[in-house]
Amino acid sequence: MGKATIIKVDGTKQEMDHRPTLEESQKIVGGYIELVRCSKGKTLVVNEEGLLHHLPMNPEAMKYYPYSLIVGNVILLEGWQSPG
User: Fold this and answer.
1) What mean pLDDT comes out for the span 38-58?
2) 27 within domain boundaries
3) Is residue 83 part of a domain?
4) Which letter does DSSP use for residue 11 in this model?
């Protein structure tokens, strides 16, 4: 079983006791979602249009994917099997 953690822009983290649904994910990130594959077994769920909406940078989330600017609240999925 995997782990899901909300990482807010202020650096706080909140563990979830389940894998979030699409609707939950959209509510947490504040819009359409995009999956950003990080290291093996880790994926960030981010707001697909976060840069367009000028969401604040999320430095804590960027520790998992330093190759791009990560903005807004995100969900870190660890150990879940990816669909498809």
Assistant:
1) 95
2) yes
3) no
4) S
Domain that holds residue 49: 3-78
DSSP 17-84: SSPPPHHHHHHHHTS-EEEEE-STTEEEEEETTTTTTTPPB-HHHHTT-TTS--BS-EEEEESPPPP-
Structural domain count, the chain: 1
First and final CA of the chain: distance in angstroms? Answer: 18
> Could you give the angle at the alpha carbon of 62 between the alpha carbons of 76 and 67, nearest 5°?
115
Decide: pTM greater than 0.90: yes
Residue 84 pLDDT level (bands cut at 50, 70, 90): very low
Cα–Cα distance for residue pair 29/66, rounded to 1 Å: 19
